[in-house]
Design goal:
The complex is a heterodimer of chains A (294) and B (370). Chain A is mainly alpha-helical and 294 residues long. Chain A contains 16 helices and no strands. The N and C termini of chain A lie far apart (50 Å). The N terminus of chain A is likely disordered. Chain B has 370 residues and is of the alpha/beta class. Chain B is elongated, with a radius of gyration of 33 Å. The longest helix of chain B is centred in the last third of the chain and has 29 residues. Chain B has a 6-stranded mixed sheet, with helices on both faces. In chain B, 53% of the residues lie in helices and 11% in strands. The chains are: A mainly alpha (294), B alpha/beta (370). The interface between A and B is large, with 99 and 86 residues.
Amino acid sequence: MRNKTGVRSQKSGVRKKYIIFAVLLFFFSGGAALAVDVNDLIFQGADFHYKGKLDEAIGKFQAAVRIDSGNEYAHNQLGILYAKKERFGDAFQEFSRVVQIDRRNTFALLWLGILHLRQNDLNNAFEKFQEIVKIDPDNADAYYYLGAIYNFRHNQAKAIEYLKKARDADSGEADTHYRLGKAFHNVDMVYNALLEYDRALELKPSYTAAINEAGWIYYNQGSYEEAIGEWKKTLRINPGDGDAIFNLAKAYNDLAWKALAAGNRKEAVTYWKKTLGVNPSNKAAKYNLEKYGK
Amino acid sequence: MDRRLFLNLLGKGVLASSALGIFPSLVWGKTSFDYALEGQNLIQSGNYDGALKVLKEAVRLDPQSDWTFGLLGRAYRGLGRKAEAVDAFRQAVRLNPEDVYSRMMIEIMTQKPIPKLKKVKKPLTPLERNALEEEKRMLSRLQSDEGLEYQVKRVVIDAGHGGFDSGAVGLNGLKEKDVNLDLAKKLHQRLQSGGEVKAFLTRTEDYYVPLSDRTVIANQYQADLFISIHINANKNREAHGSETYFCAEKASSKEAARVAALENAVLKYDKPFKKRPGYIDIEEILFQFERKLYWSESGKFAGGFQDRFKQGLPLKSRGVHSANFYVLRTAKMPSILLETGFISNSNEESMLKQPAFREKIVDAIMRGLA
């Protein structure tokens, strides 16, 4: 998730010339008054980073901060690189250093929050994200994490409040729409939930968690075929999706019982066969097929 | 037509179509690529206004070009319009996640606050209209608490075993599955009538529900708490009392491991997360955090629950234990498994037969949930 935190899509871009031109343009047109060699080091570091050459990138950024110890971007990059190398203590130090340089560097604060979450330190993570929204009331990422934390606490009213702010600040993240959808779903605001799941899928059509949840909305409304269609869609994207497999198995089992209760034994047997088709170890379907299938 | 003439015409046709392919602008006017190229040149010469104009045209003609959006971002940045620049760079990254330059620009520019981008209002779709109506109707009714206290508004009650799986059977023939169902139904009714908590059952009759289906039901209803009701059994007929379990990787004792083994009997679908080197998946950090949180929350809840549950019940409290129960493992919410006595103990079996004692157990569960 979250391209803007700089942790996704680490594959190297091919158009090196384009990058060189663009980076030089950035530094020079921006009127940056930094020494050229620092800029060179930063560019080389970024280039190594995006190519996945983490050790080389660390070397370049370390050299950059030796020359310019106040370079927030270089420290932030070092922080991310250390986190990728699982040197979380070092990463924490880098982001803390950035915050010492400038308390308004919300990128570093965000990462400090994420690292607190990684340590299961909910309260400190929460504080960091709150600090960010005080500095920047439009920070979608901070609102997202605050909303996610309220989601974890199943405090859906608060989750909705914060995730809506994240959505309105930047609706471009599928995860934001998905978690907001979940929060709406939890308080039976099904139209809003469906809308947010749809929006998540518009941004990321392979977002199977959103497809699975939308399936439950249809299912709970009695639209069984539509629900089944959703979970099958998930399996076309990811044939090993455990949630979709179990959801389908449960739906087929339910429909089998329904058919049996209505006196339609043949249809019930068909559904139990379908259950086993998606989940071959389903004990209920095995037993019932043996009992009613003859 | 003879062969020579045919080849001659074919040759001319290929030549003409190649020319169109290479220089389509000669015949059809400027393409998105032409505008983008012109925009790039204008950026290089520092004419950002001019670049913006032609790049907007390029985007209009081809809204799927990450290259054009990257250029658009640069033009906006040159004009000091940071919000628009970041938005364009984000669009470029969405179209091409490998667009490293746009990614770097986003990272650099969003290190610190940038102005908010004004959004263009579009006409509402039918679903958006329904959602808006629903929001007006329902959102104001939601109570919002500031604290980080875990909130329970929906409970899924699982009556263990059922159908061909009778669970443990007492010396006098009492079946665990029947007691579990009766207790679950009574608890369901009590919670529903309270009006503050929504309750759902995993089974309403005597039929078998696979373990996997039970937590699927909890997920189906977006439950805040999953409670699985069971009656214990032991070869030692003297064993007695109630206990509460929660999920953990390692069992807290050999006895806890035995109880979990008794309840676990399905294929495991869980696949361990394979971490790629040099890659941090934030959603995975959140997922792992959420899972640990639910398990630790289950532990905390189980402790408090058992303390309240044991009060007023003529059952010895055997305390709280943890083990890797499949039925709890896949739940996406805190979950506990309650053993409300030993059916293998003749004294407890006879108590469990009595409707009045079952009411007392339900009272105790309600107290435990409070």
